[in-house]
């Protein structure tokens, strides 16, 4: 075997490999510097957009996904090859599965210089396995019940009105567990952990619902479940002959006392688990009373929102924005309000996330826009020179007909587009930058005369690129910063920097949440273009707005 010959043939070998494997090069910081076509096809990225993205952005934005990315990165940084199965997301956020081999390339004095990833798409295999599991109702690796069989078991218990405890259990920091860097070891841990569970929860139903996530259905209460942690301590798991201290977190929910449907049991147990993890993990416990209340309220909001829309329970209030150069109110921001006999006042911060989840955000957006357009047209006819700014959610733009429906509402209200402005948040901008359909609809709306403002500026992942690429003409500095400009010298400098930077990029810069005269003066001095906040005016219903006499 002529090894030297093989080395000479490497460029040809690479070419052949590239025909079968998605191939990606990363620089030493993890940023993508090259990908082949196979990768682009599967990941749905375009070359222009993918270059410069980091390896982390290719992994799902979940704890497990990010932990795994971190683990792979740690291995590569220490000069080791990593190989195993990986769940990834494409540009549209859809999951796909690959077998990945990640190879660090090191130069003698420079250390790590680049990384090459070879990936084989195995999504079909994984999906086939999932389908088989669905039929067999069994998790093939552990022999435990699958997620599907868990659901039907729970539904059967509920139908029989059998009381039970629903326990969600997850292994903490699974992917960063010490010494865990191969698929084999991960499998070994799961296998041993499953054995411990089977021994402890002998007569109970156990399901595996994620890589390191399990559910137990038991007749016993929380004292019994919690003692599983002591059992684990007494029966540690051995990997490569060393005992592994497994930390486990979990949440406990009772049927029928706490929740009465499968989705609610699951959601509540998951929330309780998150609470435990946030407090450092290593425990299994019930949901706190406060969270329980919050969750029930959320469920109620979800249920009542549809009727609220039909029965006109929603209202819009308007908050003035003062332009510094003229000293006049030139715009009002439309903010949604909901008062319900049972729920009391539901703030938009409670309402919008629920509406985004259940899809009613489209209807809410259309309702607010209709109100705003009607009012803007009326003011216009009365001779006032006022714009109305409407908040929008990225979910609304996911509707490919958003622009069309938007313009129809304006036409119906005979509202000139130049009177309406849309506020988008940074999270939105992040999405818009990646999804060409959102981007296109924004551009189309802009050509119709709609202006865009970037809301809550400074709180998210502000990227200079959005500000250049997206059709934004204004930025609104978040109230969080404004509220501490009088107490923190550092924040004050930060705000001054944001104003200067914004203006130098040609943006109209607004400060929101201005509550005091002192804040107002400071901002004015710094050269802000406009201000909004309780100091200038509260959000009020139309009837209570006093406009100056029109010309
Ligand atoms: P936002 O767009 O940042 O709106 C400003 C929020 O700050 C409003 O809260 C407003 O009432 C409040 N605010 C105004 N001035 C002051 C002040 O001086 N001090 C303080 N502390 N707060 C002030 P609101 O009305 O509760 O709305 C919360 C968020 O809900 C909004 O934040 C916006 O992101 C969202 N939202 C409201 N209405 C809609 C809507 O119709 N559609 C969508 N998609 N989102 C909406
Ligand atoms: Ca806003
Ligand atoms: Ca804001």
Describe the structure in your own words:
With 551 residues, this protein is α/β, with parallel strands linked by helices. It has 3 domains: 3-122, PAS domain (Beta-Lactamase, 2-Layer Sandwich); 138-287, Alpha-Beta Plaits, CATH 3.30.70; 303-544, TIM Barrel, CATH 3.20.20. The protein is built from 21 helices and 21 strands. The strands form 4 sheets. An 8-stranded mixed barrel has the order 13-14-16-17-18-19-20-21, surrounded by 4 helices. Strands 2-1-5-4-3 form a 5-stranded antiparallel beta sheet, sandwiched between helices. The protein has a 5-stranded mixed beta sheet with strand order 7-8-6-11-12, with helices on both faces. The protein binds ligand C2E and calcium ion (2 copies). The site of one calcium ion (CA) has 4 residues, from loops. Residues 333, 391, 423, 455 line the site of one calcium ion (CA).
Oligomer: single chain
End-to-end span in angstroms?
93 Å
Relative strand content: 15-25%
Shape: globular
Output the CATH topology of the largest domain. TIM Barrel
Largest sheet, in brief, is: 8 strands, mixed, barrel
Strand order, main sheet: write it out: 13-14-16-17-18-19-20-21
Number of domains: 3
**Helix/strand structural class:** alpha/beta
**Which CATH architecture of the largest domain is right?**
Alpha-Beta Barrel
- Residue runs with pLDDT of under 50 for 5 or more positions: none
- Portion in helices: 40-55%
Give the CATH H-level superfamily of the largest domain. EAL domain
Give the C-level CATH assignment of the largest domain: Alpha Beta
Mean of pLDDT: 90
Bound molecules: ligand C2E, calcium ion
Please work out how many helical segments DSSP would assign: 21
């Amino acid at each position: 075997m002529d090894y030297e010959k093989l080395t000479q043939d490497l460029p040809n070998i690479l070419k052949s490999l590239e025909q079968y494997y998605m191939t990606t090069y990363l620089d030493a910081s993890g940023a993508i510097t090259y990908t082949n076509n196979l990768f682009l096809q599967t990941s749905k990225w375009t070359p222009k957009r993918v270059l410069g993205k980091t390896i982390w952005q290719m992994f799902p934005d979940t704890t497990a996904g990010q932990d795994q990315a971190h683990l792979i990165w740690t291995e590569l940084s220490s000069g080791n090859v990593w190989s195993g199965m990986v769940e990834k997301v494409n540009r549209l956020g859809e999951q796909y599965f690959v077998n990945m081999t990640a190879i660090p390339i090191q130069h003698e004095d420079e250390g790590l210089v680049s990384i090459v990833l070879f990936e084989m798409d195995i999504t079909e295999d994984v999906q086939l396995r999932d389908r088989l599991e669905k039929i067999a109702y069994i998790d093939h690796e552990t022999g435990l019940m699958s997620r599907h069989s868990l659901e039907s078991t729970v539904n059967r218990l509920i139908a029989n009105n059998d009381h039970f405890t629903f326990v969600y259990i997850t292994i903490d920091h699974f992917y960063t567990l010490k010494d865990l860097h191969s698929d084999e070891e991960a499998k070994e841990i799961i296998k041993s952990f499953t054995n411990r569970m089977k021994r402890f929860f002998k007569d109970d139903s156990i399901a595996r619902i994620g890589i390191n996530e399990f559910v137990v259905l038991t007749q016993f209460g929380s004292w019994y479940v919690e003692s599983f942690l002591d059992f684990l301590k007494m029966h540690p798991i051995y990997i490569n002959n060393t005992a592994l201290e497994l930390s486990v977190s979990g949440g406990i929910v009772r049927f029928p006392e706490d929740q009465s449907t499968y989705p609610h049991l699951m959601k509540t147990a998951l929330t309780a688990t998150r609470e435990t993890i946030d407090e450092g993990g290593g425990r299994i416990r019930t949901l706190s009373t406060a969270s329980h209340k919050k969750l029930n309220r959320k469920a109620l909001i979800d249920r009542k929102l549809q009727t609220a829309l039909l029965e006109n329970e929603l209202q819009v209030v308007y908050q003035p924005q003062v332009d510094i150069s003229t000293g006049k109110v030139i715009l009002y921001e439309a903010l949604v309000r909901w008062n319900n006999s049972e729920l009391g006042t539901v703030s938009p911060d409670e309402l919008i996330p629920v509406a985004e989840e259940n899809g009613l955000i489209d209807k809410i957006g259309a309702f607010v826009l209709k109100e705003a357009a009607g009012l803007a047209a009326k003011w216009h006819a009365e001779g006032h020179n006022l714009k109305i700014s409407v908040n929008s959610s990225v979910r609304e733009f996911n509707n490919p007909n958003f622009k069309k429906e938007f313009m129809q509402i304006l036409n119906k209200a005979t509202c000139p587009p130049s009177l309406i402005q849309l506020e988008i948040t940074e999270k939105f901008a992040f999405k818009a930058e990646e999804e060409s359909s959102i981007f296109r609809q924004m551009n189309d709306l802009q050509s119709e005369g709609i202006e865009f403002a970037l809301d809550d500026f400074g709180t998210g992942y502000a990227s200079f690129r959005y500000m250049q690429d997206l059709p934004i003409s204004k930025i609104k500095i978040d109230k969080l910063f404004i509220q501490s400009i009088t107490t923190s010298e550092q924040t004050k400098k930060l705000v001054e920097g944001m104003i200067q930077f914004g203006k130098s990029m040609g943006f109209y810069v607004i400060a929101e949440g201005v509550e005091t005269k002192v804040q107002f003066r400071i901002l004015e001095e710094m050269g802000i273009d406009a201000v909004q906040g309780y100091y200038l005016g509260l959000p009020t219903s139309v009837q209570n707005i006093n406009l100056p006499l029109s010309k």
